[in-house]
Protein backbone atom coordinates (compact mmCIF):
# COMPACT_ATOMS: atom_id res chain seq x y z
CA UNK A 1 0.00 0.00 0.00
CA UNK A 2 1.26 3.48 -0.87
CA UNK A 3 0.05 6.24 1.44
CA UNK A 4 -1.08 9.00 -0.89
CA UNK A 5 -3.37 12.04 -0.59
CA UNK A 6 -5.87 10.13 -2.76
CA UNK A 7 -5.94 7.16 -0.36
CA UNK A 8 -6.28 9.47 2.63
CA UNK A 9 -9.20 11.22 0.88
CA UNK A 10 -10.94 7.82 0.59
CA UNK A 11 -10.50 7.26 4.33
CA UNK A 12 -11.90 10.74 4.98
CA UNK A 13 -14.94 10.14 2.78
CA UNK A 14 -15.61 6.71 4.27
CA UNK A 15 -15.27 8.05 7.81
CA UNK A 16 -17.64 10.93 7.07
CA UNK A 17 -20.23 8.35 5.96
CA UNK A 18 -19.58 6.19 9.05
CA UNK A 19 -19.93 9.12 11.42
CA UNK A 20 -23.51 9.67 10.30
CA UNK A 21 -24.27 6.39 12.14
CA UNK A 22 -27.24 5.66 9.89
CA UNK A 23 -26.25 2.05 9.10
CA UNK A 24 -23.97 -0.59 10.62
CA UNK A 25 -20.30 0.24 10.01
CA UNK A 26 -19.65 -3.00 8.09
CA UNK A 27 -22.47 -2.18 5.69
CA UNK A 28 -21.27 1.41 5.20
CA UNK A 29 -17.75 0.25 4.35
CA UNK A 30 -18.93 -2.53 2.03
CA UNK A 31 -21.07 0.02 0.21
CA UNK A 32 -18.16 2.45 -0.03
CA UNK A 33 -15.85 -0.23 -1.44
CA UNK A 34 -18.48 -1.31 -3.99
CA UNK A 35 -18.70 2.29 -5.15
CA UNK A 36 -14.89 2.53 -5.37
CA UNK A 37 -13.80 -0.71 -6.96
CA UNK A 38 -10.41 0.74 -7.90
CA UNK A 39 -9.29 0.34 -4.27
CA UNK A 40 -7.12 -2.75 -3.92
CA UNK A 41 -6.98 -5.18 -0.98
CA UNK A 42 -4.28 -3.29 0.94
CA UNK A 43 -5.92 0.10 0.39
CA UNK A 44 -9.24 -1.24 1.66
CA UNK A 45 -7.45 -2.68 4.66
CA UNK A 46 -5.95 0.73 5.42
CA UNK A 47 -9.29 2.54 5.10
CA UNK A 48 -11.18 -0.04 7.19
CA UNK A 49 -8.58 -0.35 9.95
CA UNK A 50 -8.08 3.39 10.33
CA UNK A 51 -11.80 4.17 10.31
CA UNK A 52 -12.46 1.39 12.86
CA UNK A 53 -9.67 2.77 15.06
CA UNK A 54 -11.50 6.11 15.02
CA UNK A 55 -14.86 4.49 15.84
CA UNK A 56 -13.28 2.63 18.77
CA UNK A 57 -11.63 5.68 20.24
CA UNK A 58 -13.93 8.46 19.04
CA UNK A 59 -14.31 10.33 22.31
CA UNK A 60 -10.67 10.40 23.34
CA UNK A 61 -9.55 11.19 19.78
CA UNK A 62 -12.07 14.05 19.63
CA UNK A 63 -10.63 15.36 22.90
CA UNK A 64 -7.19 15.32 21.23
CA UNK A 65 -8.52 17.25 18.25
CA UNK A 66 -8.55 20.62 19.96
CA UNK A 67 -12.08 21.67 19.06
CA UNK A 68 -11.99 20.50 15.41
CA UNK A 69 -12.97 16.82 15.37
CA UNK A 70 -13.32 16.65 11.57
CA UNK A 71 -12.81 13.31 9.80
CA UNK A 72 -9.44 14.59 8.61
CA UNK A 73 -8.21 15.43 12.08
CA UNK A 74 -9.64 12.27 13.64
CA UNK A 75 -7.82 10.15 11.06
CA UNK A 76 -4.52 11.99 11.49
CA UNK A 77 -4.81 11.66 15.27
CA UNK A 78 -5.65 7.94 14.96
CA UNK A 79 -2.63 7.30 12.72
CA UNK A 80 -0.22 9.39 14.79
CA UNK A 81 -1.43 8.71 18.35
CA UNK A 82 -2.87 5.17 18.10
CA UNK A 83 -1.31 3.44 15.11
CA UNK A 84 2.19 4.76 15.79
CA UNK A 85 2.86 6.49 12.46
CA UNK A 86 5.52 9.21 12.53
CA UNK A 87 5.49 12.67 10.93
CA UNK A 88 7.62 11.48 8.01
CA UNK A 89 5.10 8.74 7.20
CA UNK A 90 2.23 11.25 7.45
CA UNK A 91 4.07 13.86 5.34
CA UNK A 92 2.19 13.13 2.06
CA UNK A 93 -0.98 14.57 3.62
CA UNK A 94 -0.12 16.79 6.59
CA UNK A 95 0.04 20.56 6.36
CA UNK A 96 2.78 22.60 7.98
CA UNK A 97 0.41 24.04 10.61
CA UNK A 98 -0.76 20.59 11.70
CA UNK A 99 2.51 19.28 13.09
CA UNK A 100 2.32 21.33 16.31
CA UNK A 101 -1.28 20.21 16.92
CA UNK A 102 -0.34 16.57 16.31
CA UNK A 103 2.52 16.76 18.80
CA UNK A 104 0.16 18.22 21.45
CA UNK A 105 -2.49 15.62 20.60
CA UNK A 106 0.00 12.83 21.22
CA UNK A 107 1.33 14.39 24.42
CA UNK A 108 -2.15 14.61 26.01
CA UNK A 109 -2.27 12.00 28.76
CA UNK A 110 -6.00 12.22 29.34
CA UNK A 111 -5.78 12.25 33.14
CA UNK A 112 -7.99 15.33 33.25
CA UNK A 113 -10.63 13.84 30.95
CA UNK A 114 -13.86 12.48 32.45
CA UNK A 115 -13.78 8.68 32.88
CA UNK A 116 -16.34 8.16 30.07
CA UNK A 117 -14.00 9.99 27.64
CA UNK A 118 -11.00 7.92 28.77
CA UNK A 119 -13.09 4.78 28.25
CA UNK A 120 -14.39 6.01 24.86
CA UNK A 121 -18.00 5.40 25.85
CA UNK A 122 -21.06 7.62 25.65
CA UNK A 123 -22.03 8.94 29.11
CA UNK A 124 -25.21 6.85 29.44
CA UNK A 125 -23.35 3.62 28.68
CA UNK A 126 -20.40 4.42 30.90
CA UNK A 127 -22.79 5.11 33.78
CA UNK A 128 -24.60 1.80 33.34
CA UNK A 129 -21.41 -0.23 33.05
CA UNK A 130 -19.92 1.62 36.03
CA UNK A 131 -23.01 0.78 38.11
CA UNK A 132 -22.57 -2.92 37.20
CA UNK A 133 -18.81 -3.41 37.02
CA UNK A 134 -17.52 -0.70 39.42
CA UNK A 135 -13.72 -0.65 39.57
CA UNK A 136 -13.48 -3.12 36.66
CA UNK A 137 -15.23 -0.76 34.22
CA UNK A 138 -12.08 0.83 32.83
CA UNK A 139 -10.38 -2.53 32.20
CA UNK A 140 -13.56 -3.79 30.52
CA UNK A 141 -13.77 -0.68 28.32
CA UNK A 142 -10.10 -1.05 27.31
CA UNK A 143 -10.67 -4.71 26.39
CA UNK A 144 -13.75 -3.76 24.34
CA UNK A 145 -11.68 -1.11 22.55
CA UNK A 146 -9.16 -3.60 21.19
CA UNK A 147 -9.78 -5.53 17.95
CA UNK A 148 -11.07 -9.09 18.38
CA UNK A 149 -8.98 -12.10 17.33
CA UNK A 150 -10.26 -14.41 14.60
CA UNK A 151 -11.75 -17.60 16.05
CA UNK A 152 -12.73 -20.71 14.13
CA UNK A 153 -15.02 -23.56 15.07
CA UNK A 154 -14.23 -27.03 13.85
CA UNK A 155 -17.08 -29.08 12.39
CA UNK A 156 -16.94 -32.31 14.42
CA UNK A 157 -19.09 -34.13 11.87
CA UNK A 158 -16.31 -33.90 9.33
CA UNK A 159 -12.98 -33.57 11.09
CA UNK A 160 -11.11 -33.00 14.35
CA UNK A 161 -9.44 -29.98 15.89
CA UNK A 162 -6.06 -31.73 15.69
CA UNK A 163 -6.45 -32.33 11.96
CA UNK A 164 -7.45 -28.71 11.33
CA UNK A 165 -4.54 -27.39 13.42
CA UNK A 166 -2.15 -29.62 11.45
CA UNK A 167 -3.52 -28.37 8.13
CA UNK A 168 -3.31 -24.72 9.22
CA UNK A 169 0.27 -25.25 10.35
CA UNK A 170 1.11 -26.83 6.98
CA UNK A 171 -0.31 -23.71 5.32
CA UNK A 172 1.74 -21.39 7.58
CA UNK A 173 -1.34 -20.04 9.32
CA UNK A 174 -0.41 -19.53 12.98
CA UNK A 175 -3.15 -20.93 15.21
CA UNK A 176 -3.76 -22.52 18.60
CA UNK A 177 -6.53 -24.36 20.39
CA UNK A 178 -8.94 -22.02 22.20
CA UNK A 179 -8.79 -21.90 25.99
CA UNK A 180 -12.37 -23.05 26.64
CA UNK A 181 -14.22 -24.33 23.57
CA UNK A 182 -13.27 -27.93 22.72
CA UNK A 183 -13.97 -27.10 19.06
CA UNK A 184 -12.34 -23.66 19.00
CA UNK A 185 -9.18 -22.47 17.27
CA UNK A 186 -7.74 -18.97 17.62
CA UNK A 187 -5.69 -17.55 14.77
CA UNK A 188 -2.77 -15.23 15.38
CA UNK A 189 -3.62 -13.08 12.37
CA UNK A 190 -6.62 -12.54 10.14
CA UNK A 191 -6.02 -14.30 6.85
CA UNK A 192 -8.78 -14.34 4.22
CA UNK A 193 -10.28 -17.82 4.59
CA UNK A 194 -13.28 -17.82 2.22
CA UNK A 195 -11.36 -19.79 -0.41
CA UNK A 196 -9.37 -21.99 1.95
CA UNK A 197 -10.08 -25.70 1.32
CA UNK A 198 -11.00 -26.25 5.01
CA UNK A 199 -13.64 -23.54 4.76
CA UNK A 200 -14.95 -24.57 1.35
CA UNK A 201 -15.30 -28.18 2.58
CA UNK A 202 -17.28 -27.07 5.66
CA UNK A 203 -14.58 -28.31 8.07
CA UNK A 204 -14.39 -24.89 9.75
CA UNK A 205 -16.65 -21.91 10.37
CA UNK A 206 -15.70 -18.48 11.68
CA UNK A 207 -17.25 -18.13 15.15
CA UNK A 208 -16.22 -16.27 18.29
CA UNK A 209 -15.28 -18.65 21.10
CA UNK A 210 -17.97 -17.20 23.38
CA UNK A 211 -20.62 -17.90 20.78
CA UNK A 212 -19.41 -21.51 20.63
CA UNK A 213 -19.85 -21.90 24.38
CA UNK A 214 -23.55 -21.03 24.09
CA UNK A 215 -24.04 -24.12 21.92
CA UNK A 216 -22.39 -26.26 24.60
CA UNK A 217 -24.77 -24.77 27.17
CA UNK A 218 -27.77 -25.85 25.09
CA UNK A 219 -26.08 -29.27 24.82
CA UNK A 220 -28.65 -30.95 22.56
CA UNK A 221 -28.44 -34.72 22.19
CA UNK A 222 -28.81 -37.11 19.28
CA UNK A 223 -32.38 -37.54 18.08
CA UNK A 224 -33.83 -34.60 20.02
CA UNK A 225 -36.34 -31.96 18.89
CA UNK A 226 -34.62 -28.59 19.13
CA UNK A 227 -35.27 -24.98 18.08
CA UNK A 228 -32.82 -22.17 17.51
CA UNK A 229 -35.48 -19.49 17.92
CA UNK A 230 -33.47 -16.50 16.65
CA UNK A 231 -31.21 -18.36 14.26
CA UNK A 232 -30.11 -15.47 12.03
CA UNK A 233 -27.48 -16.73 9.59
CA UNK A 234 -27.14 -19.82 11.76
CA UNK A 235 -23.82 -19.44 13.56
CA UNK A 236 -25.19 -21.35 16.53
CA UNK A 237 -27.58 -23.52 14.49
CA UNK A 238 -24.64 -25.19 12.76
CA UNK A 239 -23.01 -26.05 16.08
CA UNK A 240 -26.28 -27.35 17.58
CA UNK A 241 -26.88 -29.51 14.50
CA UNK A 242 -23.38 -30.97 14.75
CA UNK A 243 -23.77 -31.66 18.50
CA UNK A 244 -26.95 -33.58 17.54
CA UNK A 245 -24.77 -35.57 15.07
CA UNK A 246 -27.13 -34.46 12.30
CA UNK A 247 -29.97 -36.49 13.80
CA UNK A 248 -33.36 -35.50 15.28
CA UNK A 249 -34.90 -32.24 14.13
CA UNK A 250 -33.51 -28.74 14.50
CA UNK A 251 -35.75 -25.79 13.61
CA UNK A 252 -33.95 -22.57 12.68
CA UNK A 253 -36.52 -19.81 13.16
CA UNK A 254 -36.02 -16.16 12.30
CA UNK A 255 -38.13 -13.21 11.18
CA UNK A 256 -35.44 -12.06 8.72
CA UNK A 257 -35.64 -13.82 5.35
CA UNK A 258 -32.25 -12.47 4.29
CA UNK A 259 -30.45 -13.82 7.34
CA UNK A 260 -31.98 -17.27 6.90
CA UNK A 261 -30.94 -17.12 3.23
CA UNK A 262 -27.35 -16.61 4.41
CA UNK A 263 -27.69 -19.81 6.43
CA UNK A 264 -28.33 -21.91 3.30
CA UNK A 265 -24.78 -21.99 1.83
CA UNK A 266 -23.34 -22.59 5.30
CA UNK A 267 -25.73 -25.48 5.78
CA UNK A 268 -24.74 -26.93 2.42
CA UNK A 269 -21.05 -26.88 3.43
CA UNK A 270 -21.72 -28.28 6.91
CA UNK A 271 -22.98 -31.71 5.88
CA UNK A 272 -25.99 -31.36 8.21
CA UNK A 273 -29.32 -32.85 7.19
CA UNK A 274 -31.35 -32.25 10.37
CA UNK A 275 -31.83 -28.47 10.06
CA UNK A 276 -35.16 -26.94 9.02
CA UNK A 277 -34.94 -23.19 8.41
CA UNK A 278 -38.36 -21.57 8.94
CA UNK A 279 -39.15 -17.91 8.33
CA UNK A 280 -41.66 -16.69 10.90
CA UNK A 281 -43.75 -13.49 10.92
CA UNK A 282 -43.23 -12.92 14.64
CA UNK A 283 -42.59 -14.90 17.81
CA UNK A 284 -46.29 -15.75 17.95
CA UNK A 285 -46.44 -17.19 14.41
CA UNK A 286 -48.76 -20.21 14.01
CA UNK A 287 -45.74 -22.26 12.82
CA UNK A 288 -44.25 -21.74 16.25
CA UNK A 289 -47.44 -22.37 18.20
CA UNK A 290 -47.88 -25.79 16.58
CA UNK A 291 -44.77 -26.97 18.42
CA UNK A 292 -46.00 -26.02 21.92
CA UNK A 293 -44.69 -28.39 24.59
CA UNK A 294 -42.89 -30.60 22.05
CA UNK A 295 -39.25 -29.54 22.13
CA UNK A 296 -36.35 -30.88 24.18
CA UNK A 297 -34.18 -27.78 23.83
CA UNK A 298 -34.85 -24.20 22.77
CA UNK A 299 -32.19 -21.55 22.33
CA UNK A 300 -33.23 -17.88 22.36
CA UNK A 301 -30.21 -15.96 21.06
CA UNK A 302 -32.19 -12.76 21.39
CA UNK A 303 -31.88 -9.62 19.30
CA UNK A 304 -29.90 -7.31 21.58
CA UNK A 305 -27.83 -4.13 21.72
CA UNK A 306 -24.71 -6.12 20.76
CA UNK A 307 -22.67 -4.12 23.26
CA UNK A 308 -20.63 -7.24 24.10
CA UNK A 309 -19.31 -7.22 20.53
CA UNK A 310 -17.81 -3.71 20.53
CA UNK A 311 -14.43 -5.19 19.57
CA UNK A 312 -15.93 -6.02 16.15
CA UNK A 313 -18.76 -3.51 16.01
CA UNK A 314 -17.45 -0.36 17.70
CA UNK A 315 -20.14 1.76 16.01
CA UNK A 316 -22.81 0.13 18.21
CA UNK A 317 -21.84 2.15 21.26
CA UNK A 318 -22.62 5.33 19.32
CA UNK A 319 -25.71 3.93 17.60
CA UNK A 320 -27.49 2.47 20.62
CA UNK A 321 -29.27 4.66 23.16
CA UNK A 322 -31.22 4.21 26.40
CA UNK A 323 -34.35 4.27 24.29
CA UNK A 324 -33.21 1.60 21.80
CA UNK A 325 -32.15 -0.60 24.72
CA UNK A 326 -35.57 -0.18 26.40
CA UNK A 327 -37.27 -1.23 23.14
CA UNK A 328 -35.00 -4.29 22.89
CA UNK A 329 -35.78 -5.31 26.47
CA UNK A 330 -39.52 -5.37 25.69
CA UNK A 331 -38.89 -7.46 22.56
CA UNK A 332 -36.56 -9.85 24.40
CA UNK A 333 -39.21 -10.51 27.07
CA UNK A 334 -41.86 -11.21 24.44
CA UNK A 335 -39.62 -13.56 22.42
CA UNK A 336 -38.47 -15.46 25.53
CA UNK A 337 -42.06 -15.98 26.74
CA UNK A 338 -43.17 -17.22 23.30
CA UNK A 339 -40.16 -19.53 22.88
CA UNK A 340 -40.67 -20.97 26.38
CA UNK A 341 -44.04 -22.40 25.33
CA UNK A 342 -42.27 -24.82 22.99
CA UNK A 343 -40.27 -26.48 25.76
CA UNK A 344 -41.61 -29.77 27.07
CA UNK A 345 -41.53 -30.71 30.77
CA UNK A 346 -37.95 -31.72 31.57
CA UNK A 347 -36.72 -29.77 28.55
CA UNK A 348 -34.18 -26.93 28.49
CA UNK A 349 -34.56 -23.28 27.56
CA UNK A 350 -31.47 -21.10 27.08
CA UNK A 351 -31.75 -17.32 26.95
CA UNK A 352 -28.65 -15.60 25.59
CA UNK A 353 -27.48 -12.19 24.43
CA UNK A 354 -24.21 -10.61 23.32
CA UNK A 355 -24.97 -7.63 25.54
CA UNK A 356 -23.27 -6.67 28.80
CA UNK A 357 -26.20 -4.66 30.14
CA UNK A 358 -28.02 -6.10 33.17
CA UNK A 359 -31.39 -4.90 31.89
CA UNK A 360 -31.09 -7.04 28.74
CA UNK A 361 -29.79 -10.00 30.73
CA UNK A 362 -30.62 -10.42 34.43
CA UNK A 363 -33.60 -8.08 34.09
CA UNK A 364 -35.20 -10.11 31.29
CA UNK A 365 -34.65 -13.52 32.90
CA UNK A 366 -35.75 -12.36 36.35
CA UNK A 367 -39.03 -11.03 34.95
CA UNK A 368 -39.46 -14.27 32.99
CA UNK A 369 -38.77 -16.53 35.98
CA UNK A 370 -41.14 -14.51 38.17
CA UNK A 371 -43.94 -15.01 35.63
CA UNK A 372 -43.03 -18.67 34.84
CA UNK A 373 -42.52 -20.57 38.10
CA UNK A 374 -42.35 -23.84 36.13
CA UNK A 375 -38.87 -22.85 34.87
CA UNK A 376 -35.83 -23.17 37.14
CA UNK A 377 -32.28 -21.94 36.41
CA UNK A 378 -29.53 -24.51 35.87
CA UNK A 379 -25.87 -23.88 36.82
CA UNK A 380 -24.07 -22.98 33.59
CA UNK A 381 -20.56 -23.77 34.83
CA UNK A 382 -21.62 -27.34 35.74
CA UNK A 383 -23.32 -27.96 32.40
CA UNK A 384 -20.28 -26.70 30.54
CA UNK A 385 -17.87 -28.80 32.59
CA UNK A 386 -19.90 -31.91 31.67
CA UNK A 387 -19.60 -30.89 28.01
CA UNK A 388 -15.82 -30.82 28.20
CA UNK A 389 -15.57 -27.03 28.60
CA UNK A 390 -13.03 -26.61 31.39
CA UNK A 391 -12.22 -23.63 33.54
CA UNK A 392 -15.37 -21.50 33.43
CA UNK A 393 -15.85 -20.16 36.95
CA UNK A 394 -19.43 -20.16 38.29
CA UNK A 395 -21.04 -16.71 37.97
CA UNK A 396 -23.80 -14.98 39.93
CA UNK A 397 -27.28 -16.45 39.54
CA UNK A 398 -26.15 -19.65 37.71
CA UNK A 399 -25.67 -17.70 34.46
CA UNK A 400 -22.76 -17.79 32.02
CA UNK A 401 -21.12 -14.35 31.85
CA UNK A 402 -18.32 -13.95 29.36
CA UNK A 403 -16.26 -10.82 28.76
CA UNK A 404 -13.24 -9.92 26.66
CA UNK A 405 -11.01 -9.04 29.61
CA UNK A 406 -11.87 -12.18 31.61
CA UNK A 407 -12.25 -14.78 28.83
CA UNK A 408 -10.82 -13.21 25.67
CA UNK A 409 -14.17 -13.64 23.93
CA UNK A 410 -16.95 -11.22 23.09
CA UNK A 411 -19.23 -10.31 25.98
CA UNK A 412 -22.07 -12.82 26.38
CA UNK A 413 -24.77 -13.61 28.91
CA UNK A 414 -26.64 -16.90 28.94
CA UNK A 415 -28.94 -18.62 31.40
CA UNK A 416 -30.07 -22.22 30.98
CA UNK A 417 -33.43 -23.10 32.54
CA UNK A 418 -35.30 -26.37 32.89
CA UNK A 419 -39.03 -26.75 32.64
CA UNK A 420 -40.38 -28.76 35.53
C1 LIG B 1 -28.35 -12.17 17.97
S1 LIG B 1 -29.09 -12.37 16.41
C2 LIG B 1 -28.93 -14.09 16.12
C3 LIG B 1 -27.56 -14.56 15.75
C4 LIG B 1 -27.49 -16.04 15.42
N1 LIG B 1 -28.12 -16.86 16.43
C5 LIG B 1 -26.07 -16.51 15.21
O1 LIG B 1 -25.51 -17.19 16.07
O2 LIG B 1 -25.49 -16.19 14.16
C6 LIG B 1 -30.80 -12.19 16.74
C7 LIG B 1 -31.74 -12.61 15.64
O3 LIG B 1 -33.07 -12.48 16.11
C8 LIG B 1 -33.89 -12.26 15.00
N2 LIG B 1 -35.21 -11.81 15.48
C9 LIG B 1 -35.65 -10.56 15.73
N3 LIG B 1 -36.92 -10.58 16.17
C10 LIG B 1 -37.29 -11.89 16.20
C11 LIG B 1 -38.51 -12.57 16.56
N4 LIG B 1 -39.57 -11.87 16.97
N5 LIG B 1 -38.54 -13.91 16.48
C12 LIG B 1 -37.44 -14.61 16.05
N6 LIG B 1 -36.27 -14.02 15.70
C13 LIG B 1 -36.20 -12.68 15.77
C14 LIG B 1 -33.10 -11.26 14.18
O4 LIG B 1 -33.52 -11.27 12.83
C15 LIG B 1 -31.67 -11.78 14.36
O5 LIG B 1 -31.30 -12.62 13.31
UniProtKB/TrEMBL annotation:
Pfam families: Methyltr_RsmB-F (PF01189), RsmF-B_ferredox (PF22458)
GO biological process entries: RNA methylation
Any GO molecular function: RNA methyltransferase activity
Top-rank taxon: Bacteria
Domain SAM-dependent MTase RsmB/NOP-type: 140-420
Residues forming the catalytic site: 354 (nucleophile)
Annotated keywords: Methyltransferase, RNA-binding, S-adenosyl-L-methionine, Transferase
InterPro entries: MeTrfase_RsmB-F_NOP2_cat, MeTrfase_RsmB-F_NOP2_dom, RCMT, RsmB-like_ferredoxin, SAM-dependent_MTases_sf
Binding site for S-adenosyl-L-methionine: 254, 301
PANTHER family xrefs: NOP2 YEAST -RELATED NOL1/NOP2/FMU SUN DOMAIN-CONTAINING, RIBOSOMAL RNA SMALL SUBUNIT METHYLTRANSFERASE B-RELATED
Family note: Belongs to the class I-like SAM-binding methyltransferase superfamily. RsmB/NOP family.
Name of this protein: RsmB/NOP family class I SAM-dependent RNA methyltransferase
Native organism: Azospira restricta
Amino acid sequence: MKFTPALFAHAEAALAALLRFEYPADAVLSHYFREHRQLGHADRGFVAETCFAVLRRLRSLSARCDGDASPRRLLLAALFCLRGWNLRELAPVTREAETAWLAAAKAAKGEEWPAAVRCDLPDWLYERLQAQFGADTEALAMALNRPAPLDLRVNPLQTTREAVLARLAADDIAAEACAYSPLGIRLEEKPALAKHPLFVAGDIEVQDEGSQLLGFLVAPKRGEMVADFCAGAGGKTLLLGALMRSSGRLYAFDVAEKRLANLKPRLARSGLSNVHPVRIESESDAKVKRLAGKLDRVLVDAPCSGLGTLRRNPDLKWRQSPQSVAELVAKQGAILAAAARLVKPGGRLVYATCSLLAEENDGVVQAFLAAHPDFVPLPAAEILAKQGVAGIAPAAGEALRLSPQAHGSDGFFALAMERR
